Amino acid sequence: MGANLALNLADSGRRVAVYNRTTSVTRELAAGEEGDKIAAAAESLEELVGALRRPRIIVLMVQAGAPVDDVIDRMAPLLDQGDILVDGGNSHFTDTERRVRRLSAEGIGYLGVGISGGEEGARFGPSIMAGGDIDAWPDVEPIFTGAAARAPDGAACCGWVGPGGAGHFVKMVHNGIEYGDMQLIAEAYDLMRRGLAMSPAQIGDVLAEWGEGRLRSYLIEITADILGAVEGGEPLIDMILDAASQKGTGKWAAAASLDLAEPGTLVAEAVFARIVSSDPGRRRRAAEVFDSPVAPLDGITVSDIEAALYASKIISYAQGLRLMGAASAEYGWGLDLGLVASLWRAGCIIRADFLEDIAAAYREGPAPTDLAEAPFFAGAVKAAEPSWRRVVAGAAMAGIAAPAHSSALAYFDGARSERLPANLIQAQRDFFGAHGFERVDRPRGELFHRDW
After folding, report:
1. pLDDT tens figures, 354-369
2. Which residues participate in catalysis according to the annotation?
3. Residues 127, 121: contact at Cβ < 8 Å?
4. Cβ(196)–Cβ(302) under 8 Å?
5. CA separation for the pair 451, 432 (Å, rounded)
6. DSSP for residue 76
7. Overall average pLDDT of the 77-98 stretch
8. In terms of DSSP bridges, do strands 158-163 and 230-231 run parallel, antiparallel, or are they unpaired?
9. Main-chain phi, psi angles of 85, to 5 degrees
């Protein structure tokens, strides 16, 4: 992504110098067919800093965690006050908060910028979510705006979202939603493959059709392409080991939802589903013990699965937006959730026509407390609900795991219930631990205890 972003910035009219700790990588880029776009190929940090005009703007594209701190430790002594460091990787937002404070004290601007779109997005236009030192943003904004993706209305998918670690938090939630979207699509594929006995090519055709409607998105588009790929006359998807890996941003998003007491159930289920998948040997042993065959999905249609996917997707985004709202309140970031949705309309992995509707929900009226309750989405969920229930119930009866769809429906049912069994849990807690309980006939916050 670093090399492609450098070429993108050069294409947008910027003078770009590059450095990689592996010198051969730097030389390969400079010697490549687009190497003439690079103004300087440095072989040391000192040479890189010397190649830039002040105020220097240096974009770091390195692995999150200790490697970022290591580069900062080596880079900071070479910089002057007023220079700017931009972390374009997937750093944890708390690390970004710490680095902003540290470098601010040294007179160096520091920005934590979420950049989404993969290698192709970095080359031709990513979605850019900036946070950090607000005083550093005016110098960087025109550079990133020139390289960012363009939404259908021509607006650049690039913007300042808030101070401190806000940019990296928004990117983390983006990735959490991405986990959920990928799991939902994989479950829809599985329901059609095993439940409806459809071939990968047939499912790919269905997804291509969905991609022309309300589910039009990058992930649906590439999944249709994946399912059409063949090798040796056989579907390539059948030759890929069913063990999903992860780099950690989904786990961070799930942990943040726990820290902020927001129900990020769908991203958590997506993370756990990857963990379950990651040990095929264990699953094979369990399959020998519990050899119940998968049953057909009786009475379930492709249209039902499409509706269930759409409703679950609404819940996924609703949970992500709630999580960002809670973080904004907790950390004083002042996030504009409508702006965030607008930045995701192009360039990023979760880009979808659907995001135009989300941005409109925040732009055209009072900000909804929960996206699913906004009129447009509430109507969509109500219309999809019968199919959603049939699919989740059918999957359970057929023995096909659909944890993301099931979790989304369970959250929906819990969130819309005026009365939940949590009263019993509070009674249990008071019984064994004297934790107290509130009463429906007394004001909130007033605790009572019973000698059970």
Report:
1. 999 999 999 887 888 8
2. 171, 178
3. yes
4. yes
5. 10
6. G
7. 95
8. unpaired
9. -110, 135
